[in-house]
Amino acid sequence: MRAGRLLVAAGALACGIAVSGVATQAGLKPAESALVTRYVGAIAAHRYAVAFDLLEAPEQRYFQSVANFSSVFQADRLDVVRFRIIGSTRRPPLGAVALVRERVSFYDHAQHALVKADMTVPYGVTAPLRIKDPYHPWRAFAPAGVSGHSAGLRVVVRKLSFFTGRLETILTFANTGPRAVTVLPYGRSVLRDQDGKPYTPLATRLPSLTDPTLYTGLRLPPDAQYTGLMTFVTPGRFVATSLDFSFGPVLVDGGGQPFEIALPRYFVPRLSAVAVARALQRCHGSERTRCMPAT
Known about the structure:
Elements: H1 30-44, H2 48-53, H3 57-63, H4 66-74, E1 79-91, E2 95-108, E3 113-126, E4 130-132, E5 139-141, E6 147-150, E7 153-163, E8 166-175, E9 181-183, H5 185-188, E10 190-192, E11 198-199, H6 212-216, E12 218-220, E13 225-233, E14 242-252, E15 259-262, E16 266-267, H7 273-281
Antiparallel strand pairs: 1-2, 2-3, 3-4, 5-7, 6-7, 7-8, 8-13, 9-12, 9-14, 10-11, 10-14, 14-15, 14-16
């Protein structure tokens, strides 16, 4: 199979902090450095309740709960192997921005494999000593078994990311049949909630929101596949209990009418403190060293 576009810049793995004002090269104060180290160390240890408590109040309200916050990292199976603060800037009156070099491993939903990467991640430090870590979804899932198949084309939902006003989906389109197929997912694709209310794809000029290949149409020869992003417009705080996806139209070379592929209904998990408690218990098991802040 030929792999589609590599999607490694998803959610927590590719966030930046856009702030206004004039930056200075002033270093972090000791208390600020300790705060950043504690926050990233908590993420590395999967101690999400500790990290959540260090966020500034607006971000805590955005995530609403530790369970939502932890789901963002768990959906990508994120592990911070080691990290160190390599620099900072200060943007009065907004606070400081710490630059942290991280060695991470995560699940690449396009390659269907765990991969490792080195990246520099900015973290804001606001008064009174709180962390600003924006641009994450407020919750995320990597659903299992959400796929549909017809006339040789298979569609798989790899990841769901809930943002304010939109639902981002990572999808794989794979041609397992003997003839080429053309997929036009921005033609008649639709998402419906538990009440049957429809939501349509978001079409923009921004590749981070609208995949250009899927927008213009995807042609797959036999044994080819493509993994890309589709974003659906939703209410501000989308709390559906179930999701029904339908993608199309799909055209098979040499025959038949265009058709859509309907996926089985996906019941959105109800997050609870149980999942977080299990994550925290890892700090007391055989992998105890993972709970120590990396350097």
